[in-house]
Amino acid sequence: MSKKTESAATETAPAMQPLAEVVAGIKKAEKAAGTMLAETREAARKAAEQLNPALPMAERIAEVMACYSVALEGVNHNIRAIFKDVITLKAAESCPVSVQVVGKDGKKVEAHVSASEAVDLPKHALRAAAQEVREVHGMARKRAERKPKAAPAGEPAPDMKLSDTERFGAWLGELDEFITDAVLHPQIVAHLAGLGYTLGKAVQGRKISGKAAA
Q1: 42 C-beta neighbours (distance < 10 Å), count
Q2: Do residues 158 and 149 lie in contact, with contact meaning Cβ atoms separated by under 8 Å?
Q3: How far apart (Å, rounded) are the C-alpha atoms in residues 185 and 31?
Q4: Distance between CA 43 and CA 188 in Å, rounded?
Q5: What does the pLDDT average to over 117-139?
């Protein structure tokens, strides 16, 4: 091997290795159900510390995702999607985004934040912000334009074919962001109280984010 080749080999950066803390966080999110969003967000936030700013945007994100491909293999698709969205937002921290959030009066309003700030938004706003970042940086998927197929008469639309278990799973996956939202929390408490249940123990020690309506 020539001295030039040896020098190049020496300067080659070692392959990125997954952090045990991140892998543990991903596994915890898979079992967490109601706190899946929070657990996934924190694991991805830690993994984002490994982003290489010297690489182009798409490559720096791909490098981290490849590093945790084994840990993410076979997990709930929501966990993988949210993990990648957080990595994307952290990779473009200063990128301005506009998203729909729930205002003090319970109605949706447009908020203008940085990609980094969007990491702490509720699930749907977080995902919308990540999609906007991908579009700004030319990383969004290109979809061929085609007319939607009309469902045959008498046949329910695809989103109506979910089983009770699937619908419950989707609701449970978003429960954490609903129950810790200052606007929605009182509504949930009141509804359960009307059914004869209390939510006191369930949210003990949990932080309710945002501001409730006056």
Answers
A1: 17
A2: no
A3: 24
A4: 28
A5: 93
Residues linked to residue 102 through DSSP beta bridges, in sequence order: 108
- Residue 80 dihedral angles phi and psi, to the nearest 5°: -65, -45
Which spans in the chain are helix H? 3-11, 20-32, 36-47, 57-67, 69-72, 77-91, 115-118, 123-136, 164-179, 184-194
Angle among Cα 206, 212, 214 to the nearest 5 degrees reads 150
- CB-CB neighbours of 58 under 10 Å: 14
CB within 8 A of 3, min separation 6: which ones?
Answer: none
pLDDT tens digits, 99-108: 988 877 778 8
Yes or no: say if 42 and 85 are a contact pair by the CB < 8 Å rule. no
Residue that has been written with the tokens 């981290």 in this structure: 64
From residue 22, how far is each of 13, 74, 88, 107, 169 by CA, in Å? Answer: 21, 16, 16, 35, 24
Handedness of CA 108, 111, 115, 116 (dihedral sign): negative
Name the amino acid, one letter, at 46. K
**142 DSSP assignment:** P
Please state, in angstroms and rounded to a whole number, the distance separating the CA atoms of residues 66 and 58.
12
- Token pair for residue 161? 């074919």
* 197, amino acid identity: Y
What residues form DSSP beta bridges with 97? 113
Structure tokens at 206: 């949990």
Q: For the residues 171-184, what does the mean pLDDT come to?
A: 66
